């Protein structure tokens, strides 16, 4: 990947983009409240580029998500929202017959999509479901997870498919970081001894649906997680932004593997319309971004010049990633990730 390489000093991440796709939790909002500068920045972007939204959160319908975003001040229709339940139900349809009974572990968003696809919904393994589909909801508890385990025990994937909307380990909420759907899926996996098929990020189906729905040629995706958002965008061949308002920060970025590195790093969404600094790599491997320079000297990552804090992080990432060295083999100054 040509990390941070720009055509001119005045180019912004939005230049040449015909579709801006934004994750929700940790990018647009945390809990019910908007993240600072997110709404204003997305509204500004919408003046020149189509904006859509992608979410792994399966607890709400696309209409409910659109309503929430509209309440925050964004102009959003349900068709602007691509959800992991939508991707999961499409995957479900390729594994079981139309009209089959499906055990749903999740909230209204997942139930709504299963029903819209023509399947019958059950909440009990005793109804002999053709498949199990599982997504996040704050109301999911032990009894629901137990029903999934009962339905899957002793059944192979061919006999009774199990589809998870996503496997995010955590979810950012107003009070902090909470367990996500990945922890609930793991509980069922432990009891049933099986792994699910996964529809949402980092799998490509949800990205492909978004690109096809909006007929995009040059999309740009914004996320806050490397292991789902950025990995998924890279797998789908889409340029990506990691915004530092959600789950992952400097420590995760400098340690990111080659498959999970973003095209751009932004402090917040105001950076979408701001000139993105060029990354200059010297012959000795030293990397300069703005007034910050970082180099690899043996096993040491050295700060040669410290300018803007964000440019320092960008320079450090580029220097470490370009080195091809594993992060555990390098001595990294605490200043770069504290």
TrEMBL record:
Keywords, sorted A to Z: Hydrolase
Molecular function (Gene Ontology), one example: phosphatase activity
Keyword Hydrolase: yes
Cellular component GO terms held in the UniProt record: cytoplasm
InterPro entries per the UniProt record, alphabetical: GNAT-like, HAD-like_sf, HAD-SF_hydro_IIA, HAD_sf
Pfam family, one: GNAT_like
Keyword Hydrolase annotated: yes
Identification of the protein by name: HAD-IIA family hydrolase
